[in-house]
Design goal:
This protein is mainly α. The chain contains 18 helices and 2 strands. It has a two-stranded antiparallel sheet with strand order 1-2. The longest helix has 18 residues. It is globular. The chain starts with a helix and ends with a strand.
Length: 339
């Protein structure tokens, strides 16, 4: 497996293919070409093998610091930060992106300064600091516009959509998702299209249009499955569960959330677990299972706290304590029939 062959897999964004093709290659062999190790770590991250990705990225970072390739170091810092984030090590991820921002500024590397700003915005948003997130995204957007980087523009508009959605500005959020889809389509970035479709589904659920939400989320799920991305597939499943619950199909919602929870556990993804458990708490309460609902809310609160989002952690914990002890629940309705 040559470096050129690995680059070709990455250029096609065939991450599952790259993981399969390099599965038998020892890490030491990959680390002889740190760029090869970088691509393989990124591929492992994208197919949900976060622990292996983190180990390889850390070793590649050590190797690149020894050889003094500044541009490659910035690329590895970016992958390392994303992998740390996805493994729930939020403070370490912030340190990695902060170091990336400083290194990019020193090297006058506008592209990686934009990437660092974008990722720092994601962390700020997850921690509940919407104002800081918007500032980071606007900086990234301005840089990507100057560079003409379509994929970066798509990612940033997707992130801006999430921030405006959380602020309750639904029309502005949807406008950003549509721009993300447009830029991602022109950049042939199917993963970003799917991310924006997933978020458009969330907006439709909040607007009361469960059938349209389901269409968007089903399209996103099909894209993520084609890309071999189990974690984002599970996120689409979570949103599909929300659409099912909104239309009264509680049994389908329960099954989709169960599948998403299994993936969150398997890949130790804190954000996915927190969001799935929050949704399971609401569904279980609706199904007349107060003890299970309290347990799900409490688990969600713990994982939101580990992510640094104390506001959401306290809100979800308050939801758990609002369910009275000994509550038996009402008779649930599954798929339109009393059970």
């Amino acid at each position: 497996m040559t470096l050129q062959a690995i680059r070709e897999f990455a250029a096609r964004r065939d991450w599952s293919g790259l993981v399969a093709a390099t599965r038998a290659v020892p890490a030491e062999a990959l680390l002889q070409e740190p760029e090869a190790a970088l691509y393989c770590a990124d591929a492992l991250r994208r197919v949900g093998e976060t622990a292996a990705a983190l180990e390889l990225a850390r070793r590649a970072d050590v190797r690149v610091r020894q050889c003094g390739d500044g541009r490659l170091r910035r690329r590895i810092l970016n992958v390392l930060g994303m992998t740390l984030f996805e493994s729930g090590q939020i403070d370490e991820a912030e340190n990695s992106f902060g170091e990336l921002l400083s290194a990019a500024a020193e090297a006058e590397d506008a592209e990686f300064a934009a990437r660092a700003s974008n990722n720092l915005g994601v962390l700020a948003n997850i921690r509940g600091d919407g104002a800081l997130a918007l500032t980071c995204y606007e900086r990234a957007l301005a840089a990507y516009q100057r560079l003409g980087q379509l994929r970066g523009l798509a990612q940033t508009h997707h992130n801006l959509g999430i921030s405006y959605r959380d602020l309750g500005r639904i029309e502005e959020a949807d406008a950003h998702y549509l721009r993300a889809i447009d830029y991602a389509g022109r950049a042939e970035s199917e993963d970003v299209i799917a991310l924006a479709e997933t978020e458009r589904a969330v907006v439709r659920i909040r607007s009361g249009d469960a059938p349209m939400a389901e269409q968007f989320a089903l399209r996103a799920l099909a894209r993520f499955e084609r890309l071999g991305d189990p974690v984002r597939s599970a996120e689409a499943e979570r949103v599909l569960a929300g659409a099912a619950r909104a239309s009264g199909r509680l049994e389908i919602a329960r099954d989709r959330l169960a599948r998403a929870f299994t993936v969150a556990q398997l890949h130790a993804n804190l954000l996915l677990r927190a969001e799935v458990q929050r949704d399971r708490g609401e569904l279980l309460h609706q199904l007349g299972q107060p003890d299970a609902a309290r347990a799900a809310f409490t688990d969600a609160a713990e994982h939101f706290r580990r992510l640094g989002n104390t506001v959401e952690a306290e809100r979800v914990l308050a939801r758990a304590t609002s369910i009275p002890e000994g509550e038996s629940g009402s008779e649930p309705t599954l798929n339109g029939e009393a059970k």
